[in-house]
Amino acid sequence: MxxxxxxxxxxxxxxxxxxxTKTTVTATVGNPNIKLQAVIxxxxxxxxxxxxxxxxxxxxxxxxxxxxxxxxxxxxVNLAVRINNNSNTPGFxxxxxxxxxxxxxxxxxxxxxxxxxxNYAFIQRGNVSPGDGTIVVTAVDSVxxxxxxxxxxxxxxxxxxxxxxxxxxxVSNVASGVFNKLPYTYTSN
Length: 189
Prior knowledge:
- The protein is mainly β.
- It has one domain (35-188).
- The chain contains one helix and twelve strands, in the order αββββββββββββ.
- The strands form two sheets. It has a six-stranded antiparallel sheet with strand order 2-1-11-10-9-6, with no helix packed on it.
- Strand 3 and strand 4 form a beta hairpin.
- It starts with a helix and ends with a strand.
């Protein structure tokens, strides 16, 4: 009887220990190789080498401006934040910047189209109303000169007839935008 009890305890213990295996969970936040990406009207948009990013300080105006222009697949996104009363340092202030009635925060979407002359040009896709756009700077490394954050905005273009009556409104949604350790050039004048 003791042998049967010992074998039973041994098998029960083995079954319990077998079910207690270590589980490792790894969290992945996007692709770390992607420097900038967004979802524009439901389609992922991710420029790779057509990105220009600067942080510029104006000594005369005491302003600092973060500006990023990225283009791919006939779409261009422009992000800009101006901070007044700032200092001449190569970094940028971490914070949330929302489009308002000033020109301090600018979010724009351009689509490549033929202009009146038949040439291809980037035409702005409507305007972003106050509160309909946000740029969040979450990290800045002023030594490596890289900046990280998120963005999103909605553009609206009002179409009118010859009499000025509204005929339609074109809406574009730029969502889930991220910039990840995006290299920038710092200038000061």
